[in-house]
Structure formats: C-alpha cells, structure tokens
Specification:
heterodimer; A: Alpha-Beta Plaits; two-stranded antiparallel ribbon; about 25% helix; about 20% strand; globular; B: five-stranded mixed sheet; 17 helices; 12 strands; about 50% helix; Cyt_P450_B (chain B)
C-alpha cells in the first residue's frame, strides 16, 4: 500500500495524527505532517482510510 | 412520499424551535431533519426579514454536507454571510475579514500561521494547565453545597480560561472579552443581548481590543495565537476578524457542548455510569459523541461560484447553501442508531467541526477541554442530578444552553 502525502496542501490540522498515530506525525515545527512508515502494511488500512477521509484538505491519498 | 412540510412547519431556522426544543431529542427538531434528508435534500428557504439573508438552499444529508464543505472552489466562503444572518461580525463588509470568510490561497496563508497553535502536540502541552482551570472552576461550584446553574458556574468559565491561554488574552481581561463575545453570539435572545444596538457595540469593543492585544503580544510574545498573528504582521482588518472568529468559535461552542453533554448524561444513567468507570482517562470517543449530539452551530453557509445541480435542484451561481450540520449528525446513512447517545461510538464521522479546509481549528482543544473537565468533575462527585429543567438559548444558529440547574454531591 502506497501513501501519497501532499505536503504542499497540508496545513497541519493534525487529523491524520489522531486517525493513524502509527503512521503520521507533525514535524518538529508543526508545519506539515510527516510519515513515520513510508510503505505501511495492510494492517494499517482502516486507520489510513480514516486519515485520508478526515484530512480537511485532501492531502492524503492511498494507492494500492 | 411524505406529506410536504412547509418552511414554517419545519422550523429549522426559527429561533423558537430551539428555544422550545424537546430535551428528549437533544433539543433538536429531529423529525424536521429527517423529513429534509429524506424528502427535500436541497430545500429552498426564503426569509422576509432585513436581518436575515433573502433565501438559501438547505443541504441536510451527511454526504452532501461533506461534499459541499470539502469543495471550496464551487462552494465559496467569502462571497456572503457565514450563516443565515444578513449581518456578521466578520467579513469584508465590516472591515474584518477572517479565515471563515476567505477562500483559496489567502485562506491557506492565514490558516498556516494560526494552525501551529492548534496542533495535537501543542494541545497536549496544554493539558496540565487545563486541569488546573477545571479544578479551579469545579471546586467553588461544589463548595456551594446547593443547586447551581452548570452553564454559568462551570461550563462558561472553563472555555474562557482555556481559550484565554490559547489566544493569549491576559487573565484580567478575560471576563470582559467573553462578555462581548456572548453579546454578539446570541443576538436574538434578549436575556443575553437586550437590543440589537448592543450587538454592534460589543463587536466594536472587541474590534478595538483585538488591536490592543496584538500590540501587547508583539511586545511580549508567547506560544499563543495572538503572538503568531502579531509576528506574521497580518493587516489590521484580518487581526480584528480572526480574533472575533476564534473567540466566538471557541467560547460559545465548548460551553454549549458541555451543557448538552451533561444534560444527556443525567438523562442516561448507563452512559453516566460508563463515564464514571473511565473517569481517570476518558476515551476520545466520549467528547466526540458529546460534540455530535450538541451540534453547537446548526449550520454554516457557502455561496456557489458557478451554476450547479444538486439532487435535481438548479443552483445558480451566487446561491447561498446552508450546510445543516445538525441534520447530517443524525443521518442514518452515516450513523448506526443516530438518535442514541453512545459515548463509545466509533467511527463517529460527525460534522460539528465541519469537514473541509474550514474545519474547526480548535477541534483538538475542544475535545481536550471536554475530556479534562468531565474527568475532574466525575472524580470529585458521587452524584450529579438535575435540579430543574434545562432551558435553551433562543437562536437558530448557535445552540446554546441558557440554564442547566444541577445538584452535585461531592465525593
């Protein structure tokens, strides 16, 4: 599963960090989201779908 | 098809509907919401009142609200009033543009500046401070040893202190600051705002104060939003607009949620018992469910930037669309048993914080405030019960609770 995180769109709302805390974090200056695991396994799919859905600016896409 | 209901029968934009709301249905006209979702998912409403917009289309289904809120190119924020009032304390018309009245790059720029004060990490850092505030407001109320109004004595004070910190309002200024916010937040309830002139006066006071606050934070910067705004050098109008936006967004809505939440907990002993069992660390689902059934703002409006068709209804460019969040929060297509108050509900895709680029900046702060206040309250009490009926604010936009008399037995 490949996750595309568009940091140009990201506004650091932080919804992804709550939805998928194992995958997303905010960088040290809290400017943009970052990914803790580049290509997460299937076990994270539900979390990731929730993160993609919750992102207010649609900065997260899942590519199978 | 059900018998057609008129706008008057539906009453979803009538302040009396909410003032006289049924406490057994969260004070909400759930039957009207159901009718709208099922029979007229895009429903034209017309108003003949200089204080209200001339007409708007009500969108009530969960999926439609989410779509409108996310598609800010088609449904813009900066072209008309933010709700069904024809006037607003923010926007270009009053020389106070704010994030909620801006679109595209301009919106993104400001949001980036202030969002850094609202990230989950920043919010986590506020926890100890919030706990101190919670204890400081709860203990005097409990010490009274007699029934009190939960709204005035607890729910009002907690967000005031919390928001004061986040925004950077000095402690001594907080009471007057929140008094102004209350005046324009409930302009149609004469118990709070005696006349419409008071609304204008309160807004002007807050506008003036916003600029003073910016100066203060420029000289003495902190971790708060005002310091970030001062550092970024936003134009004066935007300083005014965003202070009003943030103040009204945070003060009122958290208080509203605490009020509806506690009321519902007292109605539902099973939910209260569950919460008491978890009082040392209340799961996040609880605050989210409270925010869902509270639906602190019934709706927000957008304006179409081009002709669009939605469920067979033609919306010309420039049409006002009201996203009826409160109706979407009880949509059976998005929630199992939506009329049930379930603190363990998960997932809980409620719309109370909005869903798109304009979604609530303070959503993590609000959830933390609710969690901490309830934890401290339940740990300090054996029993909480009603001491009289709940009464609601007379308003069809903001769902405030006016009084919630309670008796609390200290633990």
């Amino acid at each position: 599963m490949k996750i595309i995180l568009d940091t140009n769109l990201c506004e650091a709302h932080g919804d992804c960090v709550l939805a998928a805390p194992d995958i997303f974090d905010l960088d040290d200056d809290d400017n943009v989201a970052t990914m803790l695991i580049a290509e997460p396994g299937e076990e994270y799919r539900t979390q990731l779908e929730e993160a993609a859905r919750m992102c207010p600016v649609a900065a997260i896409r899942i590519e199978d | 098809m059900a018998t057609k209901m008129s706008q008057a029968e539906l009453g979803v934009f009538n302040p009396e509907t909410y003032a006289n709301g049924d406490p057994a249905t969260f004070g909400l006209p759930l039957e009207s919401f159901k009718y709208l979702r099922e029979e007229e998912p895009v429903c034209l409403h017309k108003f003949d009142d200089p204080l209200l917009v001339p007409e708007l289309y009500v969108v009530s289904r969960h999926e439609d609200i989410e779509m409108v809120d996310r598609d800010s190119e088609t449904y813009a924020s900066g072209l008309n009033s933010v709700n069904f009032w024809a006037f607003a304390p923010i926007g270009d018309a009053v020389g106070a543009p704010a994030m909620l009245t801006q679109d595209g790059e301009k919106h993104r720029e400001t949001r980036r500046i202030v969002s850094r004060a609202f990230t989950p990490k920043m919010v986590k850092g506020l926890e100890d401070k919030f706990r101190e505030y919670a204890v400081a407001v709860i203990e005097p109320a409990l010490a009274k040893g007699e029934p009190f109004n939960f709204i005035d004595d607890i729910a009002h004070l907690m967000p005031m202190q919390a928001l004061g910190d986040v925004l950077g309002v000095p402690e001594e200024d907080r009471p007057k600051f929140f008094h102004w916010v209350d005046q324009f937040a409930a302009p149609f309830d004469t118990r709070i705002t005696p006349s419409f002139e008071d609304v204008g006066k309160a807004i002007m006071e807050l506008f003036g104060y916003a600029l003073d606050l910016e100066k203060l934070r420029k000289a003495q910067p902190g971790d708060d939003i005002m310091s970030k705004i001062a550092e970024a050098g936003l134009p004066e109008g935007e300083v005014r607009g965003n202070v009003v936006l943030l103040a009204s967004g945070a003060a009122e809505s958290t208080r509203t949620s605490l009020g509806h939440g506690l009321h519902e907990l007292m109605r539902r002993p099973d939910q209260m018992a569950w919460l008491r069992e978890h009082a040392d660390d209340i799961p996040l689902t609880a605050a989210q469910e409270i925010v869902r059934i509270s639906s602190p703002f019934t709706h927000l409006c957008r304006t179409t930037t081009k002709d669009v068709e939605l469920h067979g209804v033609e919306l010309k460019a420039g049409s006002i669309v009201a996203m009826l969040f409160a109706a979407g929060n009880f949509d059976t297509d998005a929630f199992d048993n939506p009329n049930d108050f379930d603190l363990t509900r998960s997932p809980n895709p409620h719309l109370s914080f909005g869903r798109g680029p304009h979604s609530c900046l303070g959503k993590h702060v609000a959830a933390l405030e609710i969690k901490i206040l309830l934890e401290e309250l339940l740990q300090r009490t054996k029993d909480i019960r009603p001491a009289g009926p709940i009464s609601y604010i007379r308003d069809a936009y903001s769902r405030g609770v006016y009084q919630l008399p309670v008796t609390m037995e200290a633990a």
